[in-house]
Amino acid sequence: MGQRHPIAHLGLWSAYPARTRQLPGRWVPATLVFVALMLMWWAVTATGWIDDYLLPSPGQVLGRMADQVRLGIAFRYLTPTLLAALFGAGIAIVVAIPLSVVVAHSRLLAAIIEPFVAISQTIPLVAIAPLLVLWIGYGTLPIAVLCAIVAFFPMVTTTVVGLRALDMRVVENAMLDGASGWQRLIHIEFPMAAPAILAGVRGGVVLSMTGAVVGEFVMGGSGLGTLLTLSRDAADTAGVFAVVAWISLAAMSLYGLITLLERAANNRLQGEAS
């Protein structure tokens, strides 16, 4: 066996990407970096070199968030954004997964569909939003559709990559055993491609938060995008930072939840112990 890399024991590098394991207490490094950044932010604002109008202190932002929680503002504006984001992510899953199966199994359809999937990500969201208002109207549905457009691309790409990277020997053995196309898809292809599929779902769900905020920012609504607009128009910098913090917290909460569901689904689909 080759000599182990000198920094491997620190968790900084692994020569085998497929065998990389999560560090125990893997949230500790990120937490320490976050605390260091907050201290730097506090130190910069405490000197008074930068006016509060341009950069509020962490204490001001936390105080504003606490007031929003006490007054019920945070949850009143957060709920519509989360509902639109999850609705849009659900639409994306329903469309992206079957489409990915078609693309992975048909060279002709892949040649037709893949360029349009790529083009869908080149159009700015702020250009799509007014069209959705004209076609669908105002409300949660056009915002959810915008979220679906954002979440669609990572779900399709990772699912296609996962299906194309399958061990064909396993699929061929299933075919020799007489397994039908549906049986191979459900019992062989999906379980083997589950890590890639669920990684795309995780990324898409998190990105759908961006779509929801942009949609509310452009099309109006009753969520965090609207609160961000109100804070901006009032020149309330601390309020803007507070809304950004709520968006980040919501996205990270969704990321953590989907990661847990992803791990449980991978264990079940691949027959591993949970």
Automatic annotation (TrEMBL):
Domain ABC transmembrane type-1, chain residue ranges per copy: 78-262
GO cellular component, one term: plasma membrane
One Pfam family this sequence matches: BPD_transp_1
Subcellular location: Cell membrane
GO biological process terms, semicolon-separated: transmembrane transport
Chief place of localization: membrane
Transmembrane segments: 27-50, 82-104, 116-137, 143-166, 193-218, 238-261
Superkingdom field: Bacteria
CDD domains named among the record's database cross-references: TM_PBP2 (cd06261)
Membrane topology annotation: Multi-pass membrane protein
Entry similarity comment: Belongs to the binding-protein-dependent transport system permease family.
Protein name: NitT/TauT family transport system permease protein
Species the sequence originates in: Tessaracoccus bendigoensis DSM 12906
Lineage of the species this protein comes from: Bacteria, Bacillati, Actinomycetota, Actinomycetes, Propionibacteriales
